[in-house]
Amino acid sequence: QEVVSEESEEESNGVNLMEFSDEILLHILSYVPCTDLVLNVRRTCRKLATLCLDKSLTHTVLLQKDYKVNKDKVKQLMRDIGKEIYQLNMAGCYWLPSSTIDHVTRCKNLVKLNLSGCHVTSLRLSKMLSTLQHLRSLAIDVNPGFDASQLSSECKATLSRVSELKQTLYTPSYGVVPCCTSLEKLLLYFEILDRSREGFMLSGQLMVGESNVPHYQNLRIFYARLAPGYVNQEVVRLYLAVLSDRTPENLHAFLISAPGSFAETGATKNLLDSMARNVRLDALQLPKAWINGSGLLQHLKFNNPFYFSFSRCTLSGGHLIQRVINGGKDLKSLTSLNLSGCVHCLAPESLFRKAEDDIDSSILESLVVSCCNLRHLNLSAAHHHSSESIGNHLCQLLSRLKHLLSLALPVCSITDVAASVEKPPTTPNLVPQTFGKKVRIGIPTYPRNLGDQANQKIESSVFWALMGSLRFLETLEIIGSSFSSAMPRNEPAIRNSLPPCVRAQSVGDSEVAAISQLTYLQSLTLAQLPNILTGSGLVSIGLQCQHLRTLSLANLGMMGKVVYMSALMDMLKHCRCLRDLRLEQPYFCAGAQFFQALSHCSSLQRLCIVSRSGTLQSDAVMSFMASCLEVIMCHMFMGESLTVCKNLQQSIVRSFQAERPALNVVIFPLLHEDLTEVIRDVPMRHLDEITLFKSRVAEEPPNLWW
């Protein structure tokens, strides 16, 4: 009787979820995927049945990373709440059959629709858009076989009212751009390959009969991102040709992201001259060849700029201060700045300067003072060496940017000047950075808590202080200035890597431990940190950074042995929120112990391992896939034979594809000659977000799309 009375007392004192106010319950329900709300939660009780259909929950439906959704769920969802949906995001739902798109026609009131990464034919697109008369924002892919002549008049009428268009091109085409006569925002992603699967060279000429008169008169934002390849450059020039004839008066953001060399032509020069005369910009990004050696920046006018990217340009710090920052008067509005690969941007002149020379701290100080509201800053892929002047270290100056949410730095920029001068590049305990004979270093030991780390590291170091001052940082990238991934885009795997910068030789475990001060860290990238001896700092990050969702580690410590494996396995046991893990390290052994530790990451969805001469245990991989039910992407590029890789890939697909509709598995020898053919079949969402290594800080303007 006493036990029963105690239990009843606990029940009476307990909190019943249904007693919360509707406002609180709606806030809680907003974190539940819409498919679960409509198909499951609302069937539990009458109150939840009403709340789950509240307009605040059905107005916007996000399916883009709901990897458990299938065709039947989408069909039922559209049948139940289709008329209540105003914004629908199905970006990257590559696993859904093209017939799924037919059910979108039930959403008669749609205003915004994102179908990037979905399989949509010309006829299906025409049928769907013919019923969406209120549509104003659209994102689609244009694949080989797309035929604009199959679009009905009703479809074209809908497109004529669309003001925002995002178009990913896998074939030379204007897509639906000529039909969109009211465009204000145009985003173009060029993913056209130079060769067909059969090996034939492709042409950048558009299909016969396509209209070549896009309507840009109302355009406010023009953005183009090009994958490597000359065909992409040819096609984007056709899109720009109309702009060069008449520049839209309301244009305020002009952005072109092009890798490698993208030469300026007479038409593009006319376009830039027209922009300098007629428009005032808020966002700017141009190919490096269009800026290098020209006085363009001196003539362009800016209004309230919020985004600049001068990635890989030879722009000097003197020009940056004089022509862009304008003496520090006009840049308070700037929130995102990309200076990745801009090797001279912190030096007064670039003519007689070596890339490894010390930076001019006064230029960085002017930048920090002028752009005091920066939230995203990328200084990677360059040698930014601080001088010995007290108080002028790069880390000390950056610590003034209290609003930073994401930051990318080269490894050599975070070292203490005194330490790098006093400490030789290699120490008796540091194994040479080569692929030569392996050196036995014994079982690594490392401190198990942050207190021990602090005792090892002088906390007055400039990087430790920087991490302590940026407590709200969510994304951090520390990348070696000479690092290059073994997984390039359209070429065979890289076999040799450049040695790290001499200044970076002292950066190791203690610097990694300093990162653990970032309580709200969500994404971390560490590449080419040569002085990692045990990986002890990783354990501290696992313990302290409980919001970490994305982790990318590449070429840490010695190259002939994974010296941080024990620490990594300890770290993974604490990463309950980790969703994406990318590891790139020669001689990586993906064995039973590693996958057992990785199984603690219960939220893990995507795994990518790139390892020259790396090995894997098939049984361990299968056990891991069976225990981690959320994993829908497994990419491994190792040193195993083609037979081993194919057998394991087929086993995973056979065992788990039925339960996980979005499952994408690629297991392939890293140095195989057909690697590029395998890569081209990887869904763009995974390829762009995790499989290919790149710096992502300030890669695009914030909130470019939803």
TrEMBL record:
GO terms for biological process: SCF-dependent proteasomal ubiquitin-dependent protein catabolic process. PANTHER family: F-BOX AND LEUCINE-RICH REPEAT PROTEIN 18 (PTHR16134:SF19), F-BOX/TPR REPEAT PROTEIN POF3 (PTHR16134). GO terms for cellular component: SCF ubiquitin ligase complex. It comes from Leucopsar rothschildi. CDD domains: F-box_FBXL18. This is FXL18 protein. It comes from the Eukaryota. Gene3D superfamilies: 1.20.1280.50, Ribonuclease Inhibitor. InterPro entries: F-box-like_dom_sf, F-box_dom, FBXL18_F-box, FBXL18_LRR, LRR_dom_sf. Residues 14-61 form the F-box domain. It holds the Pfam family F-box-like. Signal peptide: none annotated.
